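Provenance and format

Records in this collection were gathered into a single text stream. Each protein contributes a sequence line and a token line. The two records reproduced below are adjacent in the stream.
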Amino acid sequence: MPETGKTILVVDDQAGIRRLIADVLKEDGYRVLLAENGEAALGFLKDCCPDLILLDMRMPGMSGLETLNRIRGRNYTGPIVLMTAFDDLDSIAGTSEVGASHFLSKPFDIFELKSEVKRVLRMEYS
């Protein structure tokens, strides 16, 4: 069943990943906003408040962790799922303390992505 009315902000420096995630989520009825870096993500937050943010950890310029901290610093209280290609859990240590809801390891299965998005939104807005 399509999930309508929810907005998801996808923040990833790789255009192909952004497009793939957007296509998959739009099929399920989500409204998807795309940001290529942390600065662009912060710009979106000036005008809207997404129901969920999918945030890449490794990006040039402002890292995912810095972006996460700055998003939380703007009083965004919605869920943030970190996407990381890191195999090393030490690289994401401490992120739950600053507000990450969950993690997805890249490369991820599309069904895993869809399931995680539904789960996080259900937990947050039930």
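Adjacent record:
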Amino acid sequence: MFQPDPPEPADLFEPQSQPEPRPEPSSESVYRRRRAAPVRHEPEPARHAEPASPQPDPSQAQPGFDAERLFRPEPSAEPRDPASDDTPAPADEASSASLFEPADEATPRRAVRTRRGRPPGSAGDVLQTVLVGLPLAGYLPLWQEDGVTFWRMTDPDAVRSRLGAGIGSRSEIDERRYREAAMLSPSRGTLFMMNRTRDETGHLGGTSTQLEPATREEAYAAVDDKAVSELYAWLGEVVLASVRRGEFVAVESGGWEIPMRPVVLIMLRTDGRDWHSVVETSPIPEGAPVWRDQQPVDGDTQVLASPATDQTIRASGLLTRFAVATWGMHPFQLGLSFGPNPTL
């Protein structure tokens, strides 16, 4: 696991006055415990032009990044509630994240074993609505109402390319909070990932992929540090694509029941002049790299912010990894939620 060298705080943070005691996190109103209805899917998004995205200064590009030098603790901004904050962004302001740049593939893709169209099935097939977990080490957890099952992906690249890309069907787990859903045929080992929107003919298509049943022990045994690093690098790309769509991303426990904590909430916010990449987590990740410097003494929420660029937005994946490591949870126990960013 990557452990950045401890930086000199004076090099990272601006001098700040003693912060006032933090109020109770406003994000509590977002993270209410609620059991979702599996059949309630997200409405198709309205079709409208995306705001222009300024390009970053190429002279500032770096081959890599040091997360500790990208983020600083937010000095006084209180956590905003994604469900209730209706403050519009100025008309002339737009997200400073540049166009989505997919990560280079580390290895050649295998032959795609997917097919597009209607859900595969035959008389007597039973398709189950499932929530999709995080793809890790070639395995995929699928959350049904009665628990989670594990499956080995025959084409991991095809699955990862759809998850978090904003093109797949979603199920509402709480007000204006959605998770990606799919249809599973356990007997055939087929997962049908439906599209969010219909095509010009009115057809709601999607992509199907074959899965092989696996045990929990097999899935957990396949996970190593390299696989975890790839997962959080992928998460950084998911966040970058999401903020371009005007959405927030929440990393929290998977399944249909959603507790208020633990959670990492990632979005763009503006102070009226500039846009910032903001990563908020609760509980406070005590002792975690980057997070451990100048942690708040009151409350149980911590916020890091940095000027919004592709680099800092992608770094949210690494910051999430550091925070999750303090939760005592395995990545297979996590899920991603999405929703409209109220600051846009």
